[in-house]
Amino acid sequence: MRRYENKLQEFRESILPASSALILTHDYPDPDSLASACGVSELLAFWGVDHTVIAYGGFIGRAENRAMVRFLNIKAVPFALLHIGDFDKVILVDCYPWRGNVSLPQNAPVHAVIDHHPSDPSPDAAFFQDIRDEYGATATIVTSYLLQAGCRISQKLATALFNGIKTDTDGMLRDATPDDIECYKCLFDIMDHRLLSQIETPKRDAEFFRLIHTATESATCYKNVGYIHLGAVTAPDSIAEMAELFHSWEKLEWIVCTGVFNNQIFYSIRSETSALAGAHAESIAARFGGNGGGHAKAAAGRLPIIGDAQTTAEMVKLAVVDIFGVADEEPERLL
């Protein structure tokens, strides 16, 4: 982490002095986003910032993520309930402003951004930015801050940060760097393993099993590319959940899962060995005027609906098989 050794001091100087701070995640926060926000909140408290609030623009839908909030007592609120002018500083974690995945007004002030997603950040931006797109998780960056600052990491915070790194790197199987592994090992000795087990094995509602049924009926294989369309979903993060589940289909190199939410089509991509997931996500978005991107083996995006949802979903499927080079392959249904 030596090439980032000055970032902690730069971050501190960009935030202090302040008595309050808003820490904003992406709209549908995952464990990495939630954990990073918690870590930044703890660091600011250590530096004497009296009041911090963690907020998100959408909602927390996935059962594991709701369990994480509940068992770790994470205080996070909808951004719509807040007034941004009530805070001295605004900090974004695990997202970049005005890129389509964070509910932030165009003219809103931003003082710091900490992220690990490729985002082509502006070098002359008027805010502090620490973008480490080679890292597997934003929680790794935040953990390194806490360690360098000498801030105590409680058992619950360690559990959150560990879970954030674990989920975003798929247990060190995807896009993990030596720094991810170093922080992972450090947090392992502090965290509450029983709490993590409760978070990772939550009770499921009936909708989860209906979703698996829908995904199974839709699942189609084009050579080594799997495609699933879920139709309307109650939470956009369920699309990534199904992509991860069906990516274990042994014949697949790729899985692309789509679904309709809030008058948009969301999509999630997973790769076994290829490093082109983020590039393919960008290509899909470019064809429909949407937003997309991500990492080498995991990516996502959202697209506007053109006409009606069913027609747009068919257009997206045609674009996917074309971009992935399997348009001439005979489709094979799972069922």
Description:
This protein has 335 residues and is of the alpha/beta class. The chain folds into two domains: 2-200, inorganic pyrophosphatase (n-terminal core), CATH 3.90.1640.10; 208-333, Roll (Diaminopimelate Epimerase, Chain A, domain 1), CATH 3.10.310. 39% of the residues lie in helices and 20% in strands. It has eleven helices and 13 strands. It has helices at 7-15, 31-46, 63-71, 138-149, 155-169, 178-188, 193-200, 206-218, 237-246, 277-288, 309-323, and strands at 20-24, 51-56, 76-78, 89-93, 112-115, 128-131, 220-222, 225-232, 254-261, 264-271, 291-294, 298-304, 331-333. Strands 11-12-10-9-8-7-13 form a seven-stranded mixed β-sheet, with helices on both faces. A six-stranded parallel β-sheet has the order 3-2-1-4-5-6, covered by helices on one side. The termini are far apart. The mean pLDDT is 95.
